[in-house]
Amino acid sequence: MLGVPKQTVSKAVKRFRELGHDGDRPRKGRKRTVNTARNRKIIKQRAERNSLVSMRKVAKETGLARESVRRIAKEHLQLQPYKLRKGQLLTEKNKQVRLERCKNLIRRHADEKLFSIQQTYNPQNSRRWSSDRPKEDAIVPRRQYPQSLMVWAGICASGKTPLIFVEKGVKINAKVYQKDILEKVVLPWSAEHFGQRRWTFQQDSAPAHSSKSTQDWIRAHFPDFIPSKEWPPYSPDLNPLDYSIWSILEARSCSKPHDNIESLKASLIKEWKRLTAEEVRAAALNFTERLKLCVGAQGGHFETT
Q1: Same domain assignment for residues 53 and 176
Q2: Do residue 98 and residue 247 come from a single domain?
Q3: Chief localization class (predicted)?
């Protein structure tokens, strides 16, 4: 014998006959939920104290499931994850200069004739949680970091140059920039592409670009250009390659990790060739609109639609 009371056995048999198993009966009333006023308050306070806090960390601190934390944050607190954009650190003086130069460029410039050249950079994958899209404080200040593989290219509304690779350890000074990039690639490409048409050369104000010898070289070889003293400082958000093309190229060529530099090069070349004329044209034609947005932001960071 098991030593179990007869009444207990009878109840177990009856429950099995009714339910088909020996578990508990379904409970009546509302299901228990973690979406309580207390938990919502805790999650909201965590996000307000540190908008960069991860939902994983909040879940660990509160003892709640990460999916529950995410659901409360999005569905009940209207918090959304926003990717942090990279941007130059702008002082008030920088903003004023950007404002004045953008106004001047709007007066003198037409998108169709702009030819832009620039090098790559790597955006970070950072997000913050907020009920409103962040503005100035969502800009991650960036400065130029050493690159193991530097890639240059030029685009205009009607085409693109070949990619130009600069090997690790090569210092891009004015002499190298003029000989290996402008003279070797840009000059012959532009002569073939534009023919007798007038076009405008645009570059940022990096030392190799703004040096007197480079400015003189460009003045002697190209029909028109934007002098370094007229280009808005700290403005990758105004360069078509920076604000559009590089991110497209990076997303496509670096979707999977590469074992070596040669593999990365091959992928970059492949995806560069696959860039459509529409993608390149859209990037170039967005330039004037961005100048206007920068003016509207008084030379500060601006949002695009």
Answers
A1: no
A2: yes
A3: nucleus
